[in-house]
Amino acid sequence: MTTVKPRAAIVGIAGPVLLPGEAALFQAVPPAGVILFSRNIQDPVQLAGLIASLRRVLPVEADIMVDQEGGRVARLRPPHWHAHPPAATIGALFEADPAAGLRAAWLTGALIGLDCRAAGFTIAAAPVLDISVPGAHDVVGDRAFARHPVAVARLGRAVANGLLAAGVLPVGKHAPGHGRARVDSHLVLPKVDENDLSADIRPFALNADLPWMMTAHIVYEALDPVCPATLSAAVIGDVIRGRIGFEGVLVTDDLAMKALSGTPADLAVQALAAGCDIALYCSGAFAPTEAMLRACPTITPATERRLRAGREAAANGRLTLDPAVLAAEREGLLS
């Protein structure tokens, strides 16, 4: 493991084993963490070996992240890990029976968290706090709990609390709200011309004390007509840090997404200068990952404090949980 101060970045790797070049890079220019995807995950034995390899070369407090919401966004899947319903299924239960919906949301967060923690992950990129908007692109779609912002906020909070009960950090996404996007930000830059974004912002404001949040690659013309939120000092400073009141770790959405134009290194520098704490680059391609890490500054003292507070929240919130009991209860609620 390295003792060099980490760069303000979380990056992907190419495949199911840590390559010698990746290991050497992480020792020379260590990231704050690594994110794993389906290409990196085969089964529990392989995954344990991969994470052990990462731990040998990363800083001792580096995070290992996975994008694990449930539904169609799941990197840990059966038969080795639990299957989870999409957020909209939990939202429908909440609409019929609020108490049952909230319990199912908490159980889902706890079950995701237990799988993640047992595998060696410290962060799960969930919950989605975007509202469902009729006519919007389905890039969010059933990943959103509901249309009503308070329902989204309550269900997102329940998932986050379940993750914390399992000892895993949640990430509220995608601030200040992706629900209105009419195009897929993986492919093109969405622009939202709505003047009143209070409904979109409210689930984030009601969850402002979460340890981590993720930005949206969207231009909100009423907030900043030029820069997407990820690169906008106005959106980050005035809205995410200001109006929402978020004081935790702010991570970008994936800088490999085609919504943004420019090299990952340049985009990372812009995002960090705009006020993000951590730049996220997920492709696993070696050359741009190396260039980005070398371009990124080391984490700031403020980011270090936020990271430490998040780790303390996960440690303090952890409970002793039985996954079989939780899964059976959730099955009963959703059946």
Summarize the structure.
This protein is an alpha/beta fold and 335 residues long. It is built from 11 helices and 10 strands.
> What's the helical proportion of residues?
40-55%
| Mean pLDDT reading | 96
The CATH architecture name of the domain at 88-228 and 241-247 and 317-335 reads Alpha-Beta Barrel
What is the radius of gyration computed over CA atoms, rounded to a whole number of angstroms?
A: 19 Å
Strand-residue proportion: 5-15%
Secondary-structure element order, N to C: EHEHEHHEHEEHEEHEHEHHH
CATH class category of the domain at 88-228 and 241-247 and 317-335: Alpha Beta
Terminus-to-terminus distance: 46 Å
Main beta sheet strand tally, sense and closure: 8 strands, parallel
Strand runs, count: 10
The helix-and-strand class reads: alpha/beta
Instruction: Indicate the low-confidence ranges by residue numbers.
Output: none
Description:
It is a single chain. Helix 3 runs antiparallel to helix 4, helix 4 (98-119) packs antiparallel against helix 11 (323-334) and helix 5 (149-165) runs parallel beside helix 6 (198-205). The longest helix has 22 residues, at 98-119. The chain is globular. It has 11 helices and 10 strands. 55% of the residues are buried. The chain has 335 residues and is an alpha/beta fold. The strands form 2 sheets. An 8-stranded parallel sheet has the order 9-7-5-4-3-2-1-10, with helices on both faces. It has helices at 20-28, 44-57, 87-96, 98-119, 149-165, 198-205, 233-243, 264-274, 286-295, 301-317, 323-334; strands spanning 7-11, 31-36, 63-66, 123-124, 169-175, 191-192, 212-215, 219-220, 249-251, 279-281.
